[in-house]
Design goal:
145 residues; alpha+beta; single chain; 6 helices; Sufe protein. Chain: A; elongated
């Protein structure tokens, strides 16, 4: 049998989740709870690392073959919005050629997520800029090769 405190905590957690869904939308909520492609990649072809004005760090890892992104992962020490945005960026670029990936910006991420409070929209731009940094690093490597 559950004690009253456990019941209270369970109800409070559910209330927080419901309010979060209302503010952020189902897509952002799901990616916050179950991010896709999260984790640092060993032996990545390139990595983009940036720190946003809010202090969140975003890292985008790419494995590239024949100018196509075979695999993409991300890591962030940031908030749930940063997690959702990193997850969306990596999903948007996996399997795509570099020309397509280079066109992905913060607005693309925001449209794909569907909803993000204005004060947290900078997370989408941080994730997109980290992607651009990883692509830039790859291009520099190709020039030097």
């Amino acid at each position: 049998m559950k004690n009253p405190m456990d019941d209270f905590v369970d109800k409070l957690q559910e209330q927080i989740f419901e309010e979060t869904r209302e503010v952020y939308g189902e897509e952002v909520f799901n990616r916050w709870q179950n991010p896709k492609f999260m984790g640092r990649m060993a032996n990545a072809s390139s990595v983009g690392r940036l720190t946003g004005t809010c202090g969140d760090r975003m890292e985008i890892y790419l494995r590239i073959k024949d100018d196509r992104i075979e695999e993409a992962t991300f890591f962030t020490d940031g908030c749930g919005s940063s997690v959702a945005c990193g997850s969306m960026v990596t999903e948007l670029v996996t399997g795509k050629d570099l020309d397509h990936a280079a066109q992905i910006g913060g607005d693309t991420v925001l449209r794909a997520l569907g909803a993000l409070p204005e004060e947290e929209q900078h997370c989408a731009y941080l994730a997109a800029e980290a992607l651009q940094a990883a692509i830039h690093e790859w291009m520099l490597k190709k020039i030097k090769a």
